[in-house]
Amino acid sequence: MARINLLPWREERRAEQKKQFLAALGATALFAVLVLILVDQVITSQIKGQNARNTYLQTRIAELDFEVSEIRDLQRKRSQLIERMRVIQELQGNRPVIVRIIDQLVRTVPDGVFYTELVTREGQISVKGVAESNNRVSSLMRRLEASDWLEEPNLDAVRSAPEYGEQATTFNLTVGIQLPNTDGGV
Q: Which of 93, 120, 147, 184 is most deeply packed, by most CB within 10 A?
């Protein structure tokens, strides 16, 4: 009779299944580790790419900020130059006017009156001077009023000045600047 032992076959089969299970478990674990490494590499690559883009953007932003500051500086310089040009043009345009006004001040001075100080401020001329008498100051004011270039003389103060003479007085007055209405120009 043939001897068949079924028990070792079952044990061998269990051992074989156990080996297959452990191999499958190892392969799965190895596959999971490889997938984790691959996912980590992909994520690290994406992070590096994003960091590179961020660095590029920060560099470009810094360059643009510098250019914007240069533009603002140029605009400020341009405004200053325009203001200077305006002032120069105004001075150039007023040069003949100033000469005419000084000429009018000289022409309106009566005998016995002289100026000690002239100050021009915002369309007004402040005059300080000495006169032989109060009548001379009155005559000066009438002449200033009659001038085409000067208007509204206003006497601020009159004081006695015995150092210049018995009836001498010092005076302060202001007079406005008025451009005459002529079609021929200045």
A: 147
Pick the closest to residue 154 from 132, 176, 134, 169 (CA basis): 176
Residue spans per domain, the chain: 9-108, 112-177
Element (H, E) at 99: helix 7-108
Token duo for residue 150: 């000067």
Tokens 């007079």 belong to 175
The one-character DSSP state at 112 is: T
Contacts of the segment 77-80: beta carbons below 8 A, 24+ positions apart: none
Closest CA to 139 of 149, 153, 128, 123: 153
Summarize pLDDT for 48-77 with one digit per residue, the tens.
Answer: 999 999 999 999 999 999 999 999 999 999
